[in-house]
Specification:
By secondary structure, this protein is mainly alpha-helical. The chain has helices at about 1-20, 30-55, 65-75, 80-95, 100-129.
Amino acid sequence: MKRMRERYEDYKKALERLKEAMLEEPTEIIIDGTIQRYEFTFELAWKIMKDYLEYNGFIDGLSSPRNIIQLAFQNKIIKNGDIWIQMMLDRNLLSHLYDEEKSREIYNNIKNSYLAQFEQLKQFLEENI
């Protein structure tokens, strides 16, 4: 439980930093920094979901981010599994190549959709851990 609470605190801090980045005018350097903060926040998000699932006996051992997202959706930790899968795919894409047009598209996804998903997860965790 202690590790889960520590990771949750890290997640909240990462989310706040991501939200700060979203307040800035979207220049190329701001977009790049926002994307980096998004990647970090996403990593913490799926890992805190894994911690929660393990602590509550839903899984035991290693599992991929995709499996964790599916289990989190099945157990009502997150509300929209499809968006979370897209978040994971975008995160994976970002770590393997750099395409300015695609990075702008993902930045807009973060702003228009993904940030709300992170907030919903934070709310769930506040109420349940």
